[in-house]
Amino acid sequence: ASNITKIACIGAGYVGGPTMAVIAKQCPHIKVTVVDINAQRIADWNQIDLDRLPVYEPGLPEVVAEARGRNLFFSTDVEGAIREAQMIFISVNTPTKTYGVGKGMAADLKYVELCARQIAEIATDDKIVVEKSTLPVRTAQAIRTILDAAATNGKDTQLATSRPKFAVLSNPEFLAEGTAINDLLYADRMLIGSEDNEDGKRAEQALADVYANWVPRERIVTTRIWSSELSKLTANAFLAQRISSINAISALCERTGADVDEVAHAIGMDSRIGPKFLKSSVGFGGSCFQKDILNLVYLCRHFNLPEVADYWEQVVKLNDYQKHRFAKQIIDTLFNTVSGKKIAFLGWAFKKDTNDTRESAAIYVADELLQDRAEIHVYDPKVTAEQIYGDLEYLQKHRRNDNPCTATQFSALSAVEIRSLVTVHDSPYEALKNAHATAILTEWDEFKGYDWQQIYNNMLKPAFIFDGRNILNRKEITSIGFELKSIGKG
Length: 490
Ligand code: NAD
Ligand code: UDX
Description:
Rossmann fold, alpha/beta, 6-stranded parallel sheet, UDP-Glc/GDP-Man, binds nicotinamide-adenine-dinucleotide, NAD binding
């Protein structure tokens, strides 16, 4: 059994929070402390009202209720947690760089580097450092270099034998948001990459023992450290590639009269292809797919593999095309202008059952409609108005301009313009009242159960619905009188 009794996790975000909550739930004998420099986030994790945790995730409140205060703690005391722990997870954000070398492509490792420096600075005994964040291949080497160098820094080299020893492991996270608790409890696999030496193997065993408290041993996969790091980028690239592939076919379906859901069903029955991740949509979002593929592309260019880089970059370009196609269809259908027209958005999150909006297709579609001065009225069951305004404001500063299909002469909107054109509602019926069109951006289950007859009565005619998730029943909706435009239906 594991000799680990104290774990720290740096980064209390969408990954750090849920993963550590599940470790604490499944390992009552291990004290798990999750730390973050964002004091508000930590305060939110310590909320008595479990409906107000910073991450909305089905099943998470129950897990937190069970473990918090028992062996699960959320704190801003980063140093204290590092000092105490035998094993430290780094679960900080690794966004795409927005400046300097690799801008718009490479992963920004500054937060990870800071963690490594802080651990090196504070540690007085041996530590196992676990990369939980998604990182470019060979980052473990950089972390090791920092840990080793700083461990010597200013300390008496004569005491070399008493200096703390560090083991670095790669343990990428494969959870998907909206199903995180289930994904963690019943993981397809837990992947651990370790350095090829005795200390590495010992650390790998210690982490495997933690997971073995609930994950069957045969699902705990161990590899060399570079393979583990690269597996994470590859998994996300393959998953996103399936979506871009079916979305590419959706465009052809619309021209030819084929139905993309029928095509997906037919090909998915081939056991070699399989049915999952073939749902055509307005485009994938989320904090991972685009960032990780761009990071992979950057690595390929760095290692002078331009053909490989171009191959994967096309997955992101096709996704940009899909979002653009959806926005353009709205404008084209509404007689070539949406200026001054009320367009209702159902959904802002990047997928259902999460309050996360990072890279959500809704942001890009809204941005394009706002260029034409549409009046956008948004309803999302879990996303706040401030988040929505913040997303649009952020995009004005960080629009990627490398894609020919979206690099049209976009002009940046001011925060005031955004707030005058975009209204956020607490009620879907208010958002939809007197709208020229409805666009469905997220596949929230509740949208299907709305009183669509009432919505129709209160919309302007012709009443258009652009179903970016293909969730509505065509027969029902068109028999009410709606003009329904779906993805990939000719
Ligand atoms: P996040 O932004 O939700 O959380 C990261 C947290 O780290 C933030 O709260 C931030 O304040 C904190 N932080 C940053 N630097 C810090 C420091 N020096 N000390 C203490 N705290 C610090 O990010 P996330 O979605 O949880 O993602 C974290 C990592 O996991 C990323 O590398 C991501 O690629 C990877 N990942 C994410 C998902 C996902 O579904 N979100 C899935 C798998 C892997
Ligand atoms: C993804 C990976 O699935 C997960 O393993 C990894 O750890 C993090 O990145 P996540 O981004 O949380 O997880 O959600 P995911 O379910 O993969 O959906 C990503 C995007 O693709 C969403 O916008 C979703 O709506 C879209 N999607 C997904 C489709 O458009 N069609 C599909 O068939 C599946």
